[in-house]
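Structure tokens
________________
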Amino acid sequence: MGSMGKAGQVLREVLTNYGISQNKLAIAMGVRSSVIYRWFNERIDPTGDTLVRIVEALKEIDRDAAREFVRQYLGEIVEDDTD
């Protein structure tokens, strides 16, 4: 299984669990909410640099949410790679 949509899936879960709106994240990142929407619905994947910006924005909103995003996203990458 490729990682397409993985970031969006984790992002959706974290924002939902922590009650953070797509708009709030968009404002914290300085991007349009339509961009967040496309990640959220797995239309496009954020790039590596953007992932860092997502984590930084989440940290401003809720440090636990940022930790959870990293743990879920990277945790699964690390697990997927162990064949």
Summary: The two ends are 12 Å apart (CA to CA). Helices lie at 6-17, 22-29, 33-40, 48-61, 63-81. The chain is about 75% helix and 0% strand. The chain has a mean pLDDT of 89.
